[in-house]
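=== RUN LOG ===
request id: a7f3
mode: sequence -> structure
chains: 1
length: 233
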Amino acid sequence: MTCVLLIDDDAKLTALLGDYLAAEGFSVSIENDGPQGAAEALSGGYAIAVLDVMMPRLNGLDVLRTIRALSTLPVLMLTARGDDVDRITGLELGADDYVPKPCTPRELVARIRAILRRMQPVTESGLESDQGDAVLVSSGLTMWPHQRRAEWLGESLRLTSTEFSLLEVLLRHAGRPVSKQDLSARALGRPHTRHDRSIDVHLSSIRRKLGLLADGRSIIQAVHRQGYQLLKD
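=== RESULT ===
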């Protein structure tokens, strides 16, 4: 059974969401306190954490910093509707995605499942791979999709689940631009909307982790009106 951790100081909301998730077949634990939530998230017993931004003592962004310092556990942020600052900050800190509050339990479940599906390797069609542990290699980047493992210039590359999925899609299309619509559908599991900056923020984080090539360029290039492209050997 997939274990989900809810971290939110709103006890009524977490009870409601917890009941719905349980009815959908998830095992659910609830923490209504930031520090306790961070400690529980780092226990290794969960497939994903759902984390509210606005909490006393230790807010959600600080909880996320604590988690990301030690773990790549998928984290779905709950943000105030229309609050782009918290949303972008959360993504920059390593959140896998966000859901604006108030949200319906059905929407939350759909987003959780989309994130968990990202943990599976993708193919050209966007479906799970059935080709075994095929290794993807180009321009100093090596990925083992079934192991969810990546190396850059021979060194281990630490990525969140969303970052891994985005980079995998780009690597499978190395040398060709991939639109934001396709990146969002294949890596995030949801349609891209006009003002959604999630793809840009995630790719900016990946670029920072990869650094620059010898000629000063990033291996990930923005292609005007076409999306993003991974440079090919």
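=== NOTES ===
The radius of gyration is 18 Å.
Helices lie at 11-23, 34-41, 60-70, 84-92, 105-118, 161-172, 180-188, 198-210.
=== END ===
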